[in-house]
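Thread: "does anyone have the structure for this chain?"

Original post by V.I.:
We have the sequence but no experimental structure in hand. Need at least a predicted one for the grant figures.
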Amino acid sequence: MSTLEQDLAQLNFEYLMLARECARSNPLEAAWRFGVDRKQIEEIAEFSLEKIREISAVTRTVIRLVPMKTPNDISLASHGALLIQSNADKESI
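Reply from O.Q.:
Generated one for you, tokens below.
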């Protein structure tokens, strides 16, 4: 395996581990941060370490770059307020 492939596999692994932990702790935040829908978040949250290693080993990137644009009627502050509210709801349970 070339250095590029090794680096890409490591980057994929770290990204997927971060996505899984975020999906488990705060699905709404994970959807916003990683640009995926609810179904994908649920799948990522269930990934085993073995599954993450298997996906990471592909020779393509699994990272999805999401442009930082929002519709005119939704601001970044609105997104932040949703995340804060979500965390507050979890703490009150």
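V.I.: this helps a lot. The helical segments are 3-25, 27-34, 38-45, 49-56, 76-92.
O.Q.: and Residues 61 and 79 are 27 Å apart (CA to CA).
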